């Protein structure tokens, strides 16, 4: 029972942190665009982002389990982004740069 309570507490703290982050971004953009955003808008946007994050997490876990792994890898992320060519290209570019930097670091040793 304590585990369920702890899990719910973590979930609520994560949601509160997401609310704060979304609110900060919306406030910055509102100032830049000379617009106003209501707390209801921020709440609705936070719920939308939370739902999307949950869906992405489930998909990533499913991809890694299907591949017989217990850890999510960049291959899983690329598989998730396969239908969005622009996002897929950005992720591939990021991964390639990281691999190149890592290889360069090993070559110096």
Automatic annotation (TrEMBL):
<comment type="similarity">
    <text>Belongs to the TAF9 family. CENP-S/MHF1 subfamily.</text>
</comment>
<keyword id="KW-0234">DNA repair</keyword>
<dbReference type="InterPro" id="IPR009072">
    <property type="entry name" value="Histone-fold"/>
</dbReference>
<keyword id="KW-0238">DNA-binding</keyword>
<dbReference type="GO" id="GO:0031297">
    <property type="term" value="P:replication fork processing"/>
</dbReference>
<keyword id="KW-0227">DNA damage</keyword>
<dbReference type="Pfam" id="PF15630">
    <property type="entry name" value="CENP-S"/>
</dbReference>
<dbReference type="GO" id="GO:0000712">
    <property type="term" value="P:resolution of meiotic recombination intermediates"/>
</dbReference>
<dbReference type="GO" id="GO:0003682">
    <property type="term" value="F:chromatin binding"/>
</dbReference>
<dbReference type="GO" id="GO:0006281">
    <property type="term" value="P:DNA repair"/>
</dbReference>
<dbReference type="GO" id="GO:0046982">
    <property type="term" value="F:protein heterodimerization activity"/>
</dbReference>
<dbReference type="GO" id="GO:0071821">
    <property type="term" value="C:FANCM-MHF complex"/>
</dbReference>
<protein>
    <submittedName>
        <fullName>Kinetochore component CENP-S-domain-containing protein</fullName>
    </submittedName>
</protein>
<dbReference type="InterPro" id="IPR029003">
    <property type="entry name" value="CENP-S/Mhf1"/>
</dbReference>
<dbReference type="GO" id="GO:0003677">
    <property type="term" value="F:DNA binding"/>
</dbReference>
